[in-house]
Amino acid sequence: MNPKDQDLPRRRFLRSGLAAGAALGAAQAVRAAPSDVAAMSKADPMHVVEPFYGPHQGGIVTPQQSHAYLASLDLVTEKRDELIGLLRTWTEASARMARGATAKPLPRSDTDIAPDSADALGLGPAGLTITFGFGPGMFISNGKDRYGLARYRPEALVDLPRFNGEQLLAQKTGGDILIQACANDPQVAFHAVRQLARMGDGAVQMRWGQAGFLSGPRGQTPRNLMGFKDGTNNPSIAKPALMNQFVWAKGADAPWMHGGTYTVVRRIRITIEHWDQMKVGFQEQVFGRQKYSGAPIGKKNEFDPLDLDATDKDGNPLIPENAHVRLSNDSMNNGAQILRRSYAYNDSTDFYIERWPPWRQETEYDAGLIFIAHQGDPRTGFIPINERLSRFDMLNQFTTHVGSAIFACPPGAAEGSFIGAGLFRT
Amino acid sequence: MNPKDQDLPRRRFLRSGLAAGAALGAAQAVRAAPSDVAAMSKADPMHVVEPFYGPHQGGIVTPQQSHAYLASLDLVTEKRDELIGLLRTWTEASARMARGATAKPLPRSDTDIAPDSADALGLGPAGLTITFGFGPGMFISNGKDRYGLARYRPEALVDLPRFNGEQLLAQKTGGDILIQACANDPQVAFHAVRQLARMGDGAVQMRWGQAGFLSGPRGQTPRNLMGFKDGTNNPSIAKPALMNQFVWAKGADAPWMHGGTYTVVRRIRITIEHWDQMKVGFQEQVFGRQKYSGAPIGKKNEFDPLDLDATDKDGNPLIPENAHVRLSNDSMNNGAQILRRSYAYNDSTDFYIERWPPWRQETEYDAGLIFIAHQGDPRTGFIPINERLSRFDMLNQFTTHVGSAIFACPPGAAEGSFIGAGLFRT
Asked: Mind listing the pLDDT tens digit for each residue in B135-167?
């Protein structure tokens, strides 16, 4: 069969016998339910299929894939129907790509523009999830209610306050729509965003894009670029009760958000060169944890509970007052927990010229963390936690927040419907 | 055992029973000989060990790993002994990291600065190769022979000519020393460069760094970001005779380079947004190959030989005069072949402001290809091939060379010796 005539799936073995999209969807649902990290380690990560349709969007409590590409887009259309049409198109294309197919069926003729760039052909579904979020600008932009949605803006979708020390770049900040693609392959993740962005031509334009990765032995807490285990104290995605408590929105004032989540993205640049010159003991004071084991200072094992009251023989706190784990701990934040699902980023190097003596010229790593946090309400989650961290965290000596955005990620879509349908039917 | 007291390997299972570095080296040589792509597909890519020592450096004819980080460094020391000492240190650290260990043994006390950032702990050797190259500036820099090496500069290590259409950025171009780390994990690759760069503090400084990745089903030709199979016509790394003919330097005028290779690196930005708007048939004319199968135009299968004389019924060439495969083919270049071992790159997005009407503001993908080519002599390899391509290749409408560098990669080191020893003993 001529691949150009086909709804070409990315997985070679699917070419035989399975033609209809629906059949593909069923046949490929080898991991139709969210599975735990241990089970994941056994599967070929390129063959993993995460379901696209369901009560929640994927990519939020999904076991974290190894790569991500995030894009934030600005809406430029003024037409409500065009926005709805785009969300429908995106939903269908996302469901196709999640099962390993091209974004749209490939054209029958070479004289057409291909609706899929084909760079992910043959790579497999790779656990792809695509998560959509709506920024404040979808509801009101420069004072204008472009789509008649202003009155449905959830109170929890606040404009983030200015935080101490942040140095936000306009070209890495904000946006009306988030597309987060996560997959076990960088090209599969980027491919997804690239097709979706193209489909929005005329209705949206790219504001910022960001590639990320996560390296970690399966079943263990991954280490960030600072060499510390990151995510030890995350609420467990294996516990639905915790997810209901901290991650999923109740939708009190915005019923269309019931089962969705609020997502904060921060691009945090790390001065790796500086950090690497610090003594290990000091690094451990900064985090409040031991570097190699991940255990809290004074404890043995990574998952030993934090004892913030523990003191040394002189009565000084074992975990310093300004240590990262203390300031971010739920006991310091009225019990608030957020689900961090961050990726490292590595955008190569920047060249830097000092414009005063000694006119130093340096090349610096442009690397750090794409901090991604999901929560039921950022007003009790990220915002108060980061208010405290931004003022007191010792880690701030080595980190700079240069990008920021907030989105309301609606619940998942049922097959036949589309992401965000609840908002437009309100 | 306390990991801080140990020569902590990155692989957990190695912690038991194997302490001495030499024993580790032997025990971990599970893939001591270069193996073919098919064999590789069976192993867990995080557990693969590529030998560091040997007649050739790794990372040249090694089956290509999925990630890379390249760094180009400038020498700032004036002392020959310091340079030699650094190469010794780098060699030892590279051999350690290739077998999955930290760059140096971790410190016994928290009051020391750690010689390893620990972010790759637990990740496994991941097929890590580290390849060193020497740029023109090691031999002569601003007219100065800093290390007494000028007379050993190989003739093949030319300064690259200016090519038509290139738009080179100083901060992505040149450099005295190349460190190329390739691994099946992005953090393992970056980790290696980061430790080595730190060790050179005072003797070298970073000029540019570049992350890359390669997505492809194992055993198949990977597709580039333009959606075409890339590397089909590469000389086979499984054929040592071809490698001897095209890749390994003879060292005629520079015996210390015998068994080494000359490496050209080009950072080629691709206007992905523009390319995606082209009809598939036109894209195929540009490359001279069919997009989905990879077959030459007019043929059935990817590896069918190119027939550059084939014509259509009107007598026009099936493969256009300015198609990429025609212009780069060895029959057009006096039989020259180069071993391409490129990676895609994705440094997220750039924000761009037009300074004239209509004052457009756009965000563009900063993505493309880190073109890496190895050859016995660039004067008969990359240079004439790229001279022709830079003037006539239809692909130039969609690509811009923004970075460039050339290096002499010396042969491999025997255990106990160091990379480049032959040059300094000359």
From this structure: 999 999 999 999 999 999 999 999 999 999 999
Interface of A with B in 211-240 (CB under 8 A): 211, 213, 215-217, 220, 223-228
Q: Which helix (H) or strand (E) holds B315?
A: none
Q: Round the CA-based radius of gyration of chain A to a whole number and report it.
A: 22
- Other beta carbons within 10 angstroms of residue B351's beta carbon come to 15
Over residues B300-336, the pLDDT tens digits come to 999 999 999 999 999 999 999 999 999 999 998 899 9
Query: How far is residue B62's CA from residue B237's CA, in Å, rounded to a whole number?
Result: 8
Alpha-carbon span A393 to A322, nearest angstrom: 5
**3-state secondary structure at position A388:** helix
Q: Given a cut of 50, is residue B39 above it in pLDDT?
A: no
Is the interface score ipTM higher than 0.95? no
Look at A279 and B110 and tell me if their CB atoms are within 8 Å.
Answer: yes
* Model confidence at B34: pLDDT above 50: no
| Strands (E) located in B117-176 | 129-134
Residue type at A8 in one-letter notation:
L
Q: What DSSP state is assigned to residue B248? A: S
DSSP A306: P
Which of B73, B106, B348 to mutate to probe the A interface, most A CBs <10 Å? B348
Q: What is the model's pLDDT at position B218?
A: 76
Supply the DSSP symbol for B370: E
Residues 6+ apart with CB under 8 A from B73: B175, B176, B177, B178, B179, B197, B200, B204, B205, B206, B207
Beta bridge partners, A375, equal A262
Please list the residues that pair with A144 across neighbouring strands: A141
At A297, is the secondary structure helix, strand, or coil? coil
Is the confidence at residue A119, as pLDDT, over 80?
yes
Residue B319 in tokens: 């493969």
Q: A191 in helix, strand or coil?
A: helix
Mean pLDDT of B184-206: 97
pLDDT in tens, B367-423: 999 999 999 999 999 999 999 999 999 999 999 999 999 999 999 999 999 999 999
State residue B310 phi and psi, 5-degree precision: -65, 140
H-run or E-run covering B228: none
Taking the C-alpha atoms of residue A298 and residue A290, their distance in angstroms, rounded to an integer, is: 9
8 Å CB contact of A122 and B217: yes
- The tally of CA atoms less than 13 A away on the side-chain side of residue B426 is 19
The conformational region for residue A300 under phi > 0 = left, psi -120 to 50 = alpha, else beta, is alpha
CA-closest candidate to residue A127, choices A70, A190, A58 = A58
What is the residue-wise DSSP string for B379-424? TTTHHHHHHHHHHH-GGGGTEEEEEEEEEEE-----TTS-TTHHHH
A105, A6 in Cβ contact below 8 A?
A: yes
User: With DSSP H G I counted as helix, E B as strand and the rest as coil, what are the percentages for chain B, rounded to 5?
Assistant: 25, 20, 50
B79's tokens: 């002392």
Q: Please, which residues have CB within 8 angstroms of residue A94's CB and are 6 or more apart in sequence? A: A52, A130, A192, A196, A419
Instruction: Check if the beta carbon of residue B115 is closer than 8 Å to that of residue B106.
Output: yes
Per residue in A23-53, pLDDT (tens digit) is 333 323 222 233 333 344 457 999 999 999 9
CA pair distance A397, B335, nearest whole angstrom = 57
Minimum distance, in Å, between the CA of residue B91 and any CA atom of chain A: 21
User: What pLDDT is recorded for position B38?
Assistant: 39
Helices (H), A168-295: 186-199, 240-242, 272-275, 280-287
What residues of chain A lie within 8 A of the CB of B176, using their CB?
none
User: Quick count: other Cβ atoms within 10 Å of Cβ A324?
Assistant: 22
User: Percent of chain B having pLDDT more than 70?
Assistant: 90
Average pLDDT for chain B: 90
Distance CA(A416)–CA(B287), nearest Å, equals 39
